[in-house]
Amino acid sequence: MDIEQVVALHYAHGSLEQAILDALAAAGKDVNRLTLADLAPVDEFHIGGRPATVEFAGQFGVHGGMRLLDVGCGLGGAARYFAHEHGCQVTGIDLSGEYVAVANALAARVGLGGLVRCQPGSALALPFAPESFDAVYFLHVGMNIENKSALFAGIRRVLAASGRLGIYDVMRIGAGDLSYPMPWASSPDASFVADAASYRRALEAAGFDVLKERNRWDFALESFRLMRARAASGRPAPLGMHIVMADNAGKKISNMMHDVEHGLLAPVEMVCQVVS
Ligand SMILES: C[S@@+](CC[C@H](N)C(=O)[O-])C[C@H]1O[C@@H](n2cnc3c(N)ncnc32)[C@H](O)[C@@H]1O
C-alpha cells in the first residue's frame, strides 16, 4: 500500500453519511431542514471546530465571488462556511472518496450544491489548470503529507497572481514521542508533523511570502476545557467528531489533547501570499 492508500484507509468509515444523519436525528434535528449550525459539530475535523474556522477566515481575508480551493476538504464543513458566509465558490479535493461523497451530499442538503463542489484526488497532484484559484487553504492536512515542498509547489501552480494560501495545521512545538493513534494517523508511519520553521522554509522556497503566523495553543487548551466540561456534565453530545472517527475515537482525541497539553503540539495558522 502506498502512503495515500494508508491515509485514505485511516479515515475510512463505511457508512458515514447515515451515521451523521442518525446522530443529527438523535440530537433532535430535522434532517430534511438542516442548517450549517446543525452540521458544525460533526463536519469540521480540526481542533476548535467551527469557531476555529471563523477565526481562520478572519485572518485569511476572503470576499464574495472568490474562487477557493480547499485541499483535504474532508466533509466540507469549512467549504460550506466560506460559501455561505462569504459567497465564495469553493472546490474541495480529498483523498477519501467517502468524505467527498458526504461533503457533496451535505452541501446539497443545505442548499449550497451550486457553490461547493468536492472531488476525489490528491493534494500532491492537483488536477486543475494554472491560476484556477484566487485563494487556497487547508485545515489539518499537512500532518498527513511528508513532502511539503511538493504540496506548496502544486498549490503555487494553481493560484492566481498575488493569490493567498491559508494553513491551519497541527505543528510540532516541543520534543518528545507523539502518542498514537492520533485523529490523523493510526501510527507514526502516516504522520508527518513538522514545526513552523520547516513550513516557512518550504513555503518560501515554493514562492510564498508568509504574511502572518499565529500559534493557537491557548485556543486549543480552551477548546479542550470546553470539551471536558461538556463530557463531565453527564450529557455527552450525540453529535461530535467521535461520529466521524468511529474506531478508537476516544483514544485518538485523548492522545491529541495530551500531546497538545504537554507542549509537544499546537495548532498554528499561517497566511501566505504568492511572491509577485
Ligand atoms: C483531519 S482531516 C481534516 C479535514 C478538513 N480539512 C477539516 O478541517 O474538516 C484531514 C483530511 O485530509 C485529507 N488528506 C490527507 N492527505 C491528503 C492528500 N495527500 N491529498 C488529499 N487529501 C488528503 C484526508 O483524507 C482527510 O479528509
Description:
The protein has a single domain (3-274), classed as Vaccinia Virus protein VP39 (Rossmann fold), CATH 3.40.50. The longest helix has 16 residues, at 217-232. Helix content is 43%, strand content 20%. The chain has 276 residues and is of the alpha/beta class. A seven-stranded mixed sheet has the order 3-2-1-4-5-7-6, with helices on both faces. It is built from eleven helices and seven strands. Helix 3 (36-43) packs antiparallel against helix 5 (77-86) and helix 4 (49-60) crosses helix 5 (77-86). The chain binds S-adenosylmethionine (SAM). S-adenosylmethionine binds next to helix 1 and helix 5.
How is the topology of this model organized?
Blueprint: H1 3-11, H2 16-26, H3 36-43, H4 49-60, E1 67-71, H5 77-86, E2 89-94, H6 97-109, E3 116-120, E4 133-139, H7 148-158, E5 159-172, H8 196-205, E6 208-215, H9 217-232, H10 241-245, H11 249-261, E7 265-274
Parallel strand pairs: 1-2, 1-4, 2-3, 4-5
Antiparallel strand pairs: 5-7, 6-7
The structure holds S-adenosylmethionine.
S-adenosylmethionine is lined by residues 4, 7, 11, 44-46, 72-74, 77-78, 94-96, 99, 122-124, 139-141, 144-145, 183-184.
